[in-house]
Design goal:
The complex is a heterodimer of chains A (123) and B (109). Chain A is an all-beta fold and 123 residues long. In chain A, 0% of the residues lie in helices and 52% in strands. Chain A has no helices and 11 strands. In chain A, a hairpin with a 6-residue loop joins strand 9 and strand 10. The mean pLDDT of chain A is 96. By secondary structure, chain B is mostly beta strands. Helix content of chain B is 0%, strand content 50%. Chain B has no helices and 11 strands. In chain B, strands 2, 4, 5, 6, 9, 10 and 11 form a 7-stranded mixed sheet that branches. A 4-stranded antiparallel sheet of chain B has the order 1-3-8-7, with no helix packed on it. The mean pLDDT of chain B is 97. The chains are: A mainly beta (123), B mainly beta (109). Chains A and B meet through strand 5 and strand 10 of A and strand 5 and strand 10 of B.
Chain lengths: 123, 109
């Protein structure tokens, strides 16, 4: 079965650090650009970060720049999100998402999502 | 960032009804718009991309249209399994500043 499985979400204090992981099965991750998307409880979707298939290109939403680092290890089909200086507004379900480039424009949508891992930032 | 405004934020309709959801962008995004469906407790799923292209496996009762700043998602005959929240997403600014609309919750009467 082709799937993405996230892990690592816990309750952490403000200012703390955490690393989320996403393992892919049934697909070779190095072929795909991958994203993290989050969803605060009862709220909408927010794009967080992306990383190219080779790991050399990364982008972040402004609110996490300098605090979060996206990375990948294609040898073990895994994606990561290192989170530091966590704030209460980082509390959310974090999804690992696969990009689907449907034409030659260089733009992509999301055709595969994990089930999400919950991060709660609270004292 | 480009803002996406969805309307309505909630709608209640009967099985068999035709349902339309609107997504308006704060600036032109060509046809770089996608729609996702999220059922309670589940991850979102891709329905439509390029404003009007149905993703593989999505029922044909779903359709999308629009260009520039105004887009619509239509369900031609609402089914019980369509009870969900629907989000639009702009990818015109890919890979930066990707944004989603606030969501439309669809309830079956």
């Amino acid at each position: 079965e082709v799937q993405l499985v996230e892990s690592g979400g816990v309750v952490v204090q403000p200012g703390g650090s955490l690393r989320l992981s996403c393992v892919a099965s049934g697909l070779t991750l190095n072929q795909y650009t991958m994203h993290w998307v989050r969803q605060a409880p009862g709220k909408g979707l927010e794009w967080v970060s992306l990383i190219s298939g080779d790991g050399y290109t990364t982008f972040y939403t402004d609110s996490v720049k300098g605090r979060f680092t996206i990375s990948r290890d294609n040898r073990i089909n895994s994606l990561y999100l290192q989170m530091s200086l966590l704030r209460p507004d980082d509390t959310a379900l974090y999804y690992c998402v696969k990009a689907y480039y449907y034409d030659g424009s260089g733009r992509a949508v999301y055709d595969m999502w994990g089930q999400g891992t919950m991060v709660t930032v609270s004292s | 960032d480009i803002q996406l405004t969805q309307s309505p934020s909630f709608l209640s309709a009967s099985v068999g009804d035709r349902v339309t959801i609107t997504c308006r962008a704060s600036q032109g995004i060509s046809s770089y718009l996608a729609w996702y469906q999220q059922k309670p407790g589940k991850a979102p799923e891709l329905l439509i991309y390029a404003a009007s292209t149905l993703h593989s496996g999505v029922p044909s009762r779903f359709s999308g249209s629009g260009f520039g700043t105004a887009f619509t998602l239509t369900i031609s005959s609402l089914q019980p399994e369509d009870s969900a929240t629907y989000y639009c997403q702009q990818i015109n600014t890919y890979p930066r500043g990707l944004t989603f609309g606030g969501g439309t919750k669809v309830e079956i009467k």
